[in-house]
């Protein structure tokens, strides 16, 4: 029994382990697929198999190459003529690295560049491939956390790694290696220009000092200059290698081998003649040998050896002539195959070529049968040695990129016809009766369909690629054949949506009911779209993904389509199922031309998509600075944040896009003040982007560690002058929104109040405690009881007629009104007296024995978090009390917070500009006066008077400025922060929420303290916390804190997602916080 139970437990553990490993592997494959990287393993194997045994020894034994293989040389350039065998030698080097014993100290990667894929071989694509290889060859079973965290962050927005992130990841993952080997074959085929290719090399070499690079290329003056100081090994096919190659290949040629068996001396004649004429190019040797393989007798062979062409063009011309010398039908077949290989938008396999050719022979609605397929060997053999077939993948290539260039030059006129045939074949294939059953409803069914009909995926993805190059009248009937067949459209849509990854449910993740006009809009076919709309196709039709033709066209950068659809009346701001518009799609892919057309067409630049994602954020994720610039010039909001707390600027900073971040900063963007902003700063710091961090970090040295300065309350123009730093007389304007008093006598004014006289008979006045614009505060004592109080004396200056009395009346009104409720943290009114002789009012209140909070901050420099928490639980309680009774203070600052005893009991005072509004404030009842104290005033008070309406939130803002000061000793906003590097006035700082947490002053603070400040110093008053919410915050309650706000926002965003299936919901996870660097709050316990 015990043994049986034990076996069950062991079995359960094994199943758990197996499940864990399976999940781990599934996640790994998803990440590999997300990288979207080209894989070269299959190509490498095919190339290596073509290398003749025993060749390339001279190269591997070269001293420079040996030193590189040992990691002693950081860079080697291997130039050579076209066809010299550079690719084969690079494959030999890669094989040599793979034959080395596996070591934790080194890792090798490689890239085979392809002339036909130059547009796809961007720096990002190439580094993605290197990263994929590093992950695949790593000894770790699990994905490294650095990769996982970036995957999770990008997955939220459907984006991929930027070049900076890729470089940083590769540096991080390989930093402990002694050597990271990178082999780049055909650097000259890597990019459109040599300069772009060199940028890719520089980026790879910047990964780390342990990165050693070898690259091959043709000769180039640009490369010569750039690599002048680097090690160099020139590639030239060696005679011994050519001899070995020819010796082996002669036996592979049926006719030639027979001739040699009869006449053995002919073998050496062939070898000597070809070796002497091939000029160090393996390609010529191969083609020359191919030209001999068709000779029917030895005499013809010897004759041909005496007239071997000496250049590639001559050799290709001769090869073409041999093709044309074949029977007419075979010659036509060979030419068609060669032209298709040149025209094809993707690499074709032998089977795809068979289906392509067979489709052209079908009549009407005839189904495709196996009997229709031509023999694959006949197709390839007809091409006279100008093509090669990979053994494993069966992919067909022209033997060298120079063949493609030659064919494009010499057969240019025939390429149009070839494109027409290829397009017609695609359209016919998609409408085959073989697909009349419609879409496949399972992965197994789709797999079987792709095996039986291997040309389907190519046809679905490329049928419209060349239409713009073809005569409209000749191709349109074939297009109509597809677009008028709903079943064919559905089949094409499913195949078009397939990705290279074959994860679970791979064939079912596609939108249903896609209309023909949307399927068409992905291609450059503006004239066809116009025809379709005229023919009755609905321009706003969409499938289950709600994607219209305009959105599809914008996604794929089809500028002409977008312009045509807008002219036809397409809704420019239509949204898909993720609430994304055409502009957001174009921006995400960096399609500048499309963005410009959409903006000019009235597209909303600030429309928010899923998770509050904006077009500007999409442009940042694309890495295209021109797209970002275009949107900022069009009025994109720089400060919008996603539900995760990210902004366009923080995204640029996190992904290391310095130029884009600088552009956004120059336009006035500031970092978001939540965890996402601090995470972005942290990542930028750890990646060494110190210049960027310094640029975006406010320099607080002008105020940090300096004595805090008192500031006076200002109203109207006085406040504006103080905020903008203009030097005028410190005056108050009488235009207060309290009441509109006419010029009346002091006696008439006081008749409105039930106030006593005879202050000096009741109280004795002692020393002065403080002074304001219209008031002076003294300590006083009751002559009868001896109790000590404070008295505020209001006197009216001659220069001001009414303001002093208005302020006094407001304060008296409020304190009288609240006296019946009594709050321990609101200043307690004792008595009010008037003196008609001196035209003054005496307001007797409780005495703050420790003075005001300002003086204590100056003496202590700052408070601990525990002391600050004590103060603010009282202050926020007082503010909550005021707001519940309909009063907004409007002037909360340290000078107006009175400290009653050494235990830091406080009372809020100075209600001179307080205003009573409805508790449930409506817009038309909100105050509009420009008033407050410069460094403490809320941003909504600083807007233009025509838009200025504010409520209780101004007190939250001001109190939070005080909170900031209490914790560090200096203000978040100050006119002293204005510098050449940061030219922002105090008004601009406040309006944009431009503040920071400079190190070392904020390093000891708990993350929860920063979170509270971030959520109180929010520019948008609707997003700002209320007093009760502040009091319930974890920092105020001294409780453990997690970023529950981000969690809830993420849950809301995920809950709103509705893709084609529920898998995305299952994958959603909460991002982990990773903080800590200069100027950032670190994860640590709060100080005492």
Automatic annotation (TrEMBL):
<keyword id="KW-0677">Repeat</keyword>
<feature type="repeat" description="ANK">
    <location>
        <begin position="578"/>
        <end position="610"/>
    </location>
</feature>
<feature type="repeat" description="ANK">
    <location>
        <begin position="545"/>
        <end position="577"/>
    </location>
</feature>
<keyword id="KW-0808">Transferase</keyword>
<dbReference type="InterPro" id="IPR056884">
    <property type="entry name" value="NPHP3-like_N"/>
</dbReference>
<keyword id="KW-0067">ATP-binding</keyword>
<dbReference type="InterPro" id="IPR002110">
    <property type="entry name" value="Ankyrin_rpt"/>
</dbReference>
<keyword id="KW-0418">Kinase</keyword>
<protein>
    <submittedName>
        <fullName>5-AMP-activated protein kinase</fullName>
    </submittedName>
</protein>
<dbReference type="InterPro" id="IPR011009">
    <property type="entry name" value="Kinase-like_dom_sf"/>
</dbReference>
<dbReference type="InterPro" id="IPR000719">
    <property type="entry name" value="Prot_kinase_dom"/>
</dbReference>
<feature type="repeat" description="ANK">
    <location>
        <begin position="611"/>
        <end position="643"/>
    </location>
</feature>
<dbReference type="GO" id="GO:0004672">
    <property type="term" value="F:protein kinase activity"/>
</dbReference>
<feature type="domain" description="Protein kinase">
    <location>
        <begin position="763"/>
        <end position="1036"/>
    </location>
</feature>
<keyword id="KW-0547">Nucleotide-binding</keyword>
<feature type="region of interest" description="Disordered">
    <location>
        <begin position="1066"/>
        <end position="1088"/>
    </location>
</feature>
<dbReference type="GO" id="GO:0005524">
    <property type="term" value="F:ATP binding"/>
</dbReference>
<dbReference type="Pfam" id="PF00069">
    <property type="entry name" value="Pkinase"/>
</dbReference>
<keyword id="KW-0040">ANK repeat</keyword>
<dbReference type="Pfam" id="PF12796">
    <property type="entry name" value="Ank_2"/>
</dbReference>
<dbReference type="Pfam" id="PF24883">
    <property type="entry name" value="NPHP3_N"/>
</dbReference>
<dbReference type="InterPro" id="IPR036770">
    <property type="entry name" value="Ankyrin_rpt-contain_sf"/>
</dbReference>
<dbReference type="InterPro" id="IPR027417">
    <property type="entry name" value="P-loop_NTPase"/>
</dbReference>
